[in-house]
Amino acid sequence: MWTYICVQTYGKYLGFWVGPGSTDHIWTKPLHKYLQRAKEWASLNLGMFFNLLAYKTFISSVLSFTMQLAEDPSTLLDYSMTALRLLLAGPGNWITIADASHLKSAFCFPIEFTPLQSLSLAIKARILATIAPDASIKARELEHALITYGRRTFPTWHQNCFFTTLDRCRSTLQEKDITSSTVKACMKHTGNLSFQNVARQMITSRYGVCYYSESRVRQKLVCWKLSGIPGLQERRIIGNMRLLADHAPPRVQAVYFKAVWNGWVTDCRMRTLLTQKGKSVRPCVLRCGLGSDSLQHYAVCNVFWDSLVSLLQISTGCRSRDFFLLAADGMSKELKLQLAGAIYALHRGVQVLRHADCGCQLNPRALLQCWVKKCGIRLVNKHTNKQDRTLSITF
Ligand SMILES: [Zn+2]
After folding, report:
1. Distance (Å) of CA 18 to CA 86, 128, 145, 231, 324
2. pTM of the model
3. Treating both helix axes as pointing N-terminal to C-terminal, what angle do 135-148 and 162-174 enclose, rounded to 10 degrees?
4. How many CB atoms lie within 10 A of CB 358?
């Protein structure tokens, strides 16, 4: 009779898996759901800004309930990397987690990727401050009981007890002077930010690896072979990102960032995949007849620059990679914004033509001129809502 009774070493209580066998199961469903949501949002092709917004609101939040009490799994970073690859899709390893986590702080993008490790620590800091301030006492009591009553079975279960996990988190945070009282003291100077958000900011600033934005831009500019002075170019490019943050929508910022990072999907960047499939790199999709499907060619493509000359009254002498990346000498703000709109139009036009059927003869110049008018660059500063009187742009 008892043969058919199933006995399992774990069970769900108030949403958490508890019991000696719970360690192997506590993260299975949340991590599966996390990846599933990342795939679903990525399949909508919403672009960098909306994908990062969806990540913050709907994707990373599925882990936050379990993160309150459970120790982080060893695979957390791998899952985070997979989600990043899905949401910020592009050729090869075009962007790293460090780049994505500094999009706002270093490059003025409206939003950035939230690292899961800092989120987990901040959530546990909130639990320690609100629900379990006595976690250390309970953890010591458990430790004492283990010593008093000798050898016990299920040592992993005891070592990963919720109170022990919280106590470990408290010790980790105390090393960098992040406690309930220091976070609350910091909250007085940060306006309406919640305890968890302030704790996360403190954790990111004190635990995060130093990110050198200029050095990172310098690495990315190597493949562009620009003619300007190193050092000056990196500062100009970071300054351009600030200018675009003031006057351009996130889609234009994202396209410019992806251009500097060499993250456009073109046949030259996907060469390894094409070779495996026995295909070769196609010629320039703007049909200039002189180059291949690569970003470095589009930066100086005849068709692109001829369209600009007629539409934006830009001199033909501007045609160079330095001008394309808005890093040439003497460029005015107007010219930079006009070219940023043109880079956005080029990206949209190239992607439409790359995915158009072979029989479909779309006119590349008409496509570029259509998209450049839809780039959404405004003379009004997005942050101050005041018109920049020094600018007068026409598309
Ligand atoms: Zn071309």
Report:
1. 32, 20, 19, 55, 58
2. 0.86
3. 120
4. 5
